[in-house]
Amino acid sequence: xxxxxxxxxxxGADRAALDWAIAKDIPHGGWCPKGxxxxxxxxxxxxxxxxxxxxxxxxxxxxxxxxxxxxxIVTLNPSLTEGSLATQKFAENFGKPWLHxxxxxxxxxxxxxxxxxxxxxxxxxxxxxxxxxxxxxxEFCYQLLEHSIKKEVLPxxxxxxxxxxxxxxxxxxxxxxxxxxxRDIIRLEDINVEAFIGVTEEERKKKQRIVISLDLYLALQxxxxxxxxxxxxxxxxxxxxxQKVELIASSKPRNLIESLAEEIAEELLTNPLxxxxxxxxxxxPFPNVGRVTLIIERSxxxx
Length: 303
Description:
The protein is α/β, with parallel strands linked by helices. The chain has 9 helices and 13 strands. The two termini are 27 Å apart.
């Protein structure tokens, strides 16, 4: 039931997965760092990858895990390190199924088949070691896919069937429940913005002060990577978030703070590092009321 292979395009396991997909005429894709960076230079254009906004390998890893139904991590050694370990942590924090297969894993092909079947995986992210780190990983990964996955062509009507839709919805809900229990929070409090907002004409005659506060839920691995590297590119840039919120709030007149809150949520949830958020917007429409406040909480799944 594999419909697409996703990979980051690095040498080794990533390239093996993409080459195998091309050879089997299975659609492929995935995210790679800005500039199509890899240890061997620019990733060839024959690989249909999209570039992330940054050169961070961590961002690419997170995006590929998030955009797939499950991740297969392939190494020669039994221990996960560096990028492969980060892949595992992102999968755990996002609530995504993952499987690690190494050179000495017993019943490799059967385990891969059971992993794909039990998790109903259609978009498979393949990650693992670089060729420079584990010489021979490309061939090992290619042969693993060759002997584990059989291409199945299913009618388009299958993916519209009621049972399929129910199963997919259940899986997404289960993943969301796991997301909410594993997260860190970046909080931006009391962003003051002047905006034209209000139901009555009187309210909209001049700009009003509104106050916006945000709780941004991040995967635990994001903060962990930031601590290890002490590099802004590996975490959420809250200065950029503040600018986006200010721009959205002042971009046009609105009747309701509900509309503004939903627009902010929709925009911020496009950031792959943000699993969910809570938005609090306060306005001051009455002289005898301190403030009127709306609070919404949203996640990637829209729940």
